[in-house]
# Entry
Amino acid sequence: MTSEIFQINWVTTSNFDPDKVSIQPVASGDSYDRCKILYQYNDSATSLRDLVVTVPKTPDAYITCRGVQKDFFSRGDTRIETNRYGAHFTLSGDNEHHLALYNVFEQVMTKIEQLTGTTVVFPVKDMEGYSILYTNLIHANDGRMFSSAYTADEQLDIIEVKQSIVRPAFLLSTLKKSAKETKIRVQISQMYVHKEIMNFPLAYRD
# Structure
C-alpha cells in the first residue's frame, strides 16, 4: 500500500486542536461559496492541509458503517437515485470514542461559526442513544473514485463495502448556503474495514 492515494494527513480525537483550524475560499462556478477547512498539522508552512479526522487505532473506537450506497432524493412517493455515493455511520452514545468524535465536530462547527459569522449546519441526526452521521464519497462525475477502502490485507472496491465495523477518515469542507448559513460537508477520504457485520442472527445469537 505505497500508492499516493494512501498518503494523507489526519488528526485524531485525542490530539485535535480547534485553534489549528482555518478556512480557505475556493473558486466555484455555481451559486455556492465553497471553502476548504484546513488544519495546521505541524509547525511547517506546508502542513496546512485539508482537515481529516479519525478515531484512535483501537477496535473499541471503530464505527459502524451502514454500507455504501447511491445517494437519492424523493419526488413525491418516488425514490430517484443520483450518480453520487454516500455512507451513513452510527455514533453510539455509550462509546467514549464516539462521544469524543462528536465533540470534535461540535468544536469545528463553533470555529466555522466564528470565522464566517454564520449558523453552521452539520450532517448528523441525533436519535435516542445514538447519532447518524451522513457522509459522501469523493469521486468525479465521470466515475473516477478518490475515496478508498481496504482491510489489513487488501484494497477493496469501496462501492462494494457492506455494513461493517470500520475506522474511517472523515474529510470536512464547507458549502455556504446563504449569507446566514453554512453547511459542512463530510466526505470519506479513506476507510479501514475491520470486519463485516454478518446479518445472520441464528448463527451468533441465543
Observations:
- Residues 4-204 form a domain with the OB fold (Dihydrolipoamide Acetyltransferase, E2P) fold (CATH 2.40.50).
- The chain has one domain: 4-204.
- The first helix runs from residue 96 to 116.
